[in-house]
Design a protein that fits this description.
This protein is an alpha+beta fold. It folds into 3 domains: about 140 residues, no CATH class; about 230 residues, no CATH class; about 240 residues, no CATH class. The protein contains 21 helices and 20 strands. The strands form 4 sheets. The chain has an 8-stranded antiparallel beta sheet. A hairpin with a 2-residue loop joins strand 19 and strand 20. Helix 1 packs across helix 2. The chain is globular.
Length: about 675
């Protein structure tokens, strides 16, 4: 039999969809399933017939099947957990339907009907439905269709078609916020305000903002000696609402010879990870819901699935070898200003067991190795910038305009100031960091040795390239001899709040950790293990840095928005310490130079050097910055092997000669 033509395949999928919708519309009127499961299938069928994000909003969450606690209370464990995970996945019908991804939509509706059919049949047989049977169907759905779901996700990031989102960005009516509904994402009033606010900015401001972003991407290649001329695509990641700015950025990238790919946030369980969105995305419908479902992969994550997904990824990247070879990397526009999210514990939520966490870590590491094989780290780059949202409060417009100034600061001026700090730091063999005002930090950071000070350096002088705004010097510490306590009273990481966060280090590795978010010690430890350690038993200190953007610090203090700053800006407002991989992971052998011409030699540490001799070596696939704010910072002092001390910061102020101007913003408040 000959293969179906494209038009025949499309017609067949449309017929499947039509049949599925017709069957789903009948379910609310049927009584073929025993209570309380009848309510579940009736409610979810009604949702699928007329899907809307309104059904999952926080004000409805207490009595929504998307809520594992409600589902378990009604259906019991483990069936309630299973069917709540199914409900959460079914939210994906909204973007799939909007985007016209009919095959994925048809499959998702069919698996819902298959689950319903099992309950119908078992009632006819007067048998109770076994959760193992339901889990088996769900497992098969995730695994069998990984070729499609994972494949489409990878292709969307690499293949520069005139695709769905790109057309919206280029053609949307910039005077009408209703244009945002075309994405199929949740759109709050906040995002509509942002969309309209962008129209109030002058053309020269838009151009300046776009130039800072795209030029940062170009400089990232230049500073690391990578050849941008060999690249043809860049993935643009953004929160919807910035369409006017995005148009200019796309033009800028096209002028560089780069076409943009726009990939939607992950909507399938096979590609979702954690609670944060990446790609193009709208507002979070319900952060607590996302948090409750962050480990739904516990339903299918086993060795067979891990091998299946890695096999699929290798096949897809192999098919797209040419496209992967010309991929330059991601250009990311982050946002900040949403109210701080402090998750509530949910006993009914699915969680990974010890084996599942180990498998998740293994899958992450192997995926990173595979991606690096087809898109080598020493041939790609990235850039990140961040803009505030109206939800930041009444001072939004003032904060936005101040953010424009921050993101377009004179990097040549900061380069000179930061070089003075580097020169002082490099007089020591270690750096002592002490807290104040209740901060318990007492940490000794061991520095790599310099053999030729005229030609080599161990701190990177970071200007406005991959991490915008300007303002930090950083290094990969020597692990041996890096000891002590790092603490901070409050920090927000990946949208989550951590209270009284504390780590203990011995020879550069985490040996203990705690916070006070929850009443139980073990729950606090699990919170850190999941969101900072990423299920690793320990992590090395991958970066030590000093943020020099005191203007950003002053802005945060003036408007009271420290708790709302993204890591990207927060790390520039004080010393920070990254747990996990170094800043140079997978590009350690690329020669990198500071503006003064000296080569940066601190790209490795004792952990990453294992890659040269240990075939089993894997990167940690995480890098999380913890920043100490200036009001909690006592001092930073370089200490030589003979004990001579060279102060860099004292009582929260820079004391290196020639850096006095960095203290001026700190004196504003």
């Amino acid at each position: 039999m000959s293969a179906l033509s494209d038009s025949e395949e499309i017609r067949e999928i449309e017929e499947r969809l039509e049949l599925s919708y017709a069957r789903i519309k009948e379910i609310p009127e049927e009584k073929t399933v025993a209570e309380p499961f009848r309510d579940y299938f009736s409610d979810m069928a009604a949702f699928l017939s007329d899907p809307s994000y309104e059904a999952a909003l926080p004000e409805r969450y207490d009595k929504a099947w998307f809520n594992p606690a409600y589902a378990v209370a009604r259906l019991g464990k483990p069936m309630g957990q299973l069917l709540s995970a199914v409900a959460y996945e079914l939210l994906g019908v909204i973007p799939l339907k909007t985007e016209g991804r009919t095959e994925e939509l048809a499959i998702l509706l069919e698996v819902f009907l298959e689950l319903y059919g099992v309950f119908v049949m078992n009632r006819e047989l007067e048998e109770e439905t076994d959760p193992k049977e339901i889990r088996g169907i769900w497992y098969s759905f995730i695994s069998d269709y990984a070729e499609l779901t994972v494949g489409e996700y990878v292709r969307a990031g690499l293949v520069p078609d005139e695709d769905f989102a790109l057309r919206i960005v280029k053609e949307a009516d910039l005077s009408d916020p209703a244009s945002l509904e075309l994405y199929g994402e949740y759109v709050s009033e906040d995002t509509k305000k942002l969309f309209l606010f962008m129209n109030t900015l002058k053309d020269e401001d838009i151009k300046r903002m776009a130039d800072a972003f795209t030029e940062g991407f170009r400089i990232g290649f230049l500073n690391t000696g990578k050849d941008l001329s060999k690249k043809k695509t860049v993935e643009l990641r953004f929160h919807i609402g910035f369409e006017r700015l995005l148009r200019q950025e796309i033009k800028n990238f096209e002028a560089m010879g780069l076409r943009c790919t726009l990939r939607r946030r992950p909507v399938h369980a096979a590609v979702r990870s954690g609670t944060e969105y990446t790609g193009f995305y709208g507002d979070h419908v319900n952060r607590q819901m996302d948090y409750d479902h962050r480990e739904d992969k516990a339903l299918f994550l086993d060795k067979v699935f891990v091998n299946r997904k890695l096999e699929v990824l290798r096949r897809i990247y192999g098919e797209l070898r040419e496209e992967a070879g010309v991929f330059a990397g991601p250009a990311v526009m982050e946002t900040f200003g949403e109210p701080p999210f402090l998750p509530e514990s949910c006993d009914a939520a699915l969680t990974l067991d010890e084996e599942g966490r180990s498998l998740a870590t293994y899958l992450s590491g192997e995926t990173g190795k595979l991606v690096n094989e087809f898109i080598p780290g020493d041939e790609r780059s990235f850039t990140i910038i961040s803009w505030p949202l109206p939800s930041i409060g009444a001072d939004f417009e003032a904060i936005f305009r101040e953010s424009v100034k921050l993101n377009t600061l004179d990097y040549s001026l900061y380069s000179k100031l930061q070089q003075k700090i580097i020169d002082t730091l490099e007089r020591g063999s270690s750096v002592e960091v002490l807290g104040r005002n209740g901060n318990r930090t007492r940490l000794r950071v061991s520095l790599p040795a310099l053999k030729d000070r005229k030609k080599q350096t161990i701190f990177e002088n970071c200007v406005s390239d991959v991490n915008i705004p300007v303002g930090e010097v950083f290094t990969s510490p020597r692990l041996s001899g890096t000891d002590g306590i790092l603490s901070v009273s409050e920090v927000f990481l990946n949208g989550l709040r951590f209270e009284n966060l504390e780590f203990t280090f011995k020879d550069g590795y985490v040996t203990d950790y705690s916070c006070t978010n929850f009443s139980e010690k073990e729950e606090n430890r699990h919170y850190i293990e999941e969101h900072i350690l990423h299920h690793h038993k320990t992590l090395p200190l991958g970066e030590f840095a000093i943020g020099t953007n005191t203007r950003a610090y002053a802005m945060a203090k003036r408007y009271g928005i420290f708790s709302l700053l993204p890591i990207l800006i927060a790390e520039k407002t004080g010393p920070h310490f990254a747990l996990g991989d170094t800043c140079y992971s997978r590009a350690e052998d690329v020669r990198v130079y500071n503006p003064d011409g000296r080569e940066i030699i601190s790209k490795d540490n004792e952990e990453t050097l294992k890659r040269k001799t240990d075939p089993a070596f894997r990167y940690y696939e995480c890098h999380t910055d913890v920043t100490i704010p200036y009001e909690e910072l006592g001092s930073i002092t370089a200490v030589s092997e003979t004990g001579e001390r060279f102060p860099v910061i004292a009582e929260g102020r820079f004391v290196v000669e020639g850096t006095e101007m960095l203290n001026e913003p700190l004196g504003e408040n």
